[in-house]
Amino acid sequence: MNAPFPSTAAGRNPDPRLPLKLLIAAPRGFCAGVDRAIEIVERALQKYGAPVYVRHEIVHNRYVVDSLKERGAIFVEELDEVPDDAPVVFSAHGVPKSVPAEAQRRNLLYVDATCPLVSKVHRQAERQIEKGQHILFIGHAGHPEVIGTMGQVPEGMITLVETVEDVANLPFTQDDDLSFLTQTTLSVDDTREMVEALQARYPQIVAPKAEDICYATSNRQAAVKSIAPSCDLVLVIGAPNSSNSLRLVEVAQRLGTDARLIQRASEIDPSWLEGVGTLGLTAGASAPEKLVREVVDRLSDWRVVEETPVVTTEENMVFKLPRQLTE
């Protein structure tokens, strides 16, 4: 850690004479599922005209949501807020089966923007239930993806597990038919610990055919792991309700590096840069690259910034759009 350097009395601004080495992690920012969800709303606005209703934030980023609002999107939490004659888009996080069922009952025109990797978990849940397995679902209570996934199966057939401690309190035995699934935006390390705890207590538990944590979540966490040990501070651009962004902060902190979540460059306190010679920067999967450049510009107001991209892998995933928007 570099030694603290002088600051001005008013506002404690960092010394502009000292260069700031900026390690910018890659991959960062938008993933294929987020790109697809945003394009779905944009195309729906083009095809159907404004307003287009969106159930829940299409992705967890205020800048994105506000940009779509300006173009005519109206965000609501429940279908009963959607007029009968208006199109509605379901968010990238997925929804319980009851939501499209209600939309069909009302003859609503709806477009499902659920990330295909979340939909994959939904299909796995259905298959596990068909096999008579009770699902232990690793995730965070109240997160829309968790609500959506748990809403794919009959009530009482799935149990949420949030911590290793929860595993010890589960009422099941080694004679029960069990399987597990996970939320796609969890900490890779935390999830590994919880899976190991489940498998230790229930050797018979059936794992999903492939890991549920999505490629973008894993890649962004790996990228932070590659820069955090070299940094005095890591900034993560993302929303406080963005699971994958919060996990990036935790990844850096567990490596002993101070880390902070910000939504916009305006939230940066220049005093944070006192004693910082090397700063890490990344963005959650719902944060656009424009916000990354905004942060770099803001930092340049205070210090001479020396940018170094740190690329740990290349991403080229692309998801198809719903047919109803491409015909």
From TrEMBL:
It catalyses: dimethylallyl diphosphate + 2 oxidized [2Fe-2S]-[ferredoxin] + H2O = (2E)-4-hydroxy-3-methylbut-2-enyl diphosphate + 2 reduced [2Fe-2S]-[ferredoxin] + 2 H(+); isopentenyl diphosphate + 2 oxidized [2Fe-2S]-[ferredoxin] + H2O = (2E)-4-hydroxy-3-methylbut-2-enyl diphosphate + 2 reduced [2Fe-2S]-[ferredoxin] + 2 H(+). One of its GO terms (biological process) is isopentenyl diphosphate biosynthetic process, methylerythritol 4-phosphate pathway. Pfam families: LYTB (PF02401). Transmembrane segments: none annotated. It is an enzyme of class 1 (oxidoreductase). Isopentenyl diphosphate binds at H60, H93, H143, S242, S243, N244, S286. InterPro entries: LytB/IspH. Its EC number is 1.17.7.4. Its cofactor is [4Fe-4S] cluster. Pathway: Isoprenoid biosynthesis; isopentenyl diphosphate biosynthesis via DXP pathway; isopentenyl diphosphate from 1-deoxy-D-xylulose 5-phosphate: step 6/6; Isoprenoid biosynthesis; dimethylallyl diphosphate biosynthesis; dimethylallyl diphosphate from (2E)-4-hydroxy-3-methylbutenyl diphosphate: step 1/1. The keyword Iron applies. Catalyzes the conversion of 1-hydroxy-2-methyl-2-(E)-butenyl 4-diphosphate (HMBPP) into a mixture of isopentenyl diphosphate (IPP) and dimethylallyl diphosphate (DMAPP). Acts in the terminal step of the DOXP/MEP pathway for isoprenoid precursor biosynthesis. This is 4-hydroxy-3-methylbut-2-enyl diphosphate reductase. It comes from Qipengyuania soli. The lineage of its organism: Bacteria, Pseudomonadati, Pseudomonadota, Alphaproteobacteria, Sphingomonadales.
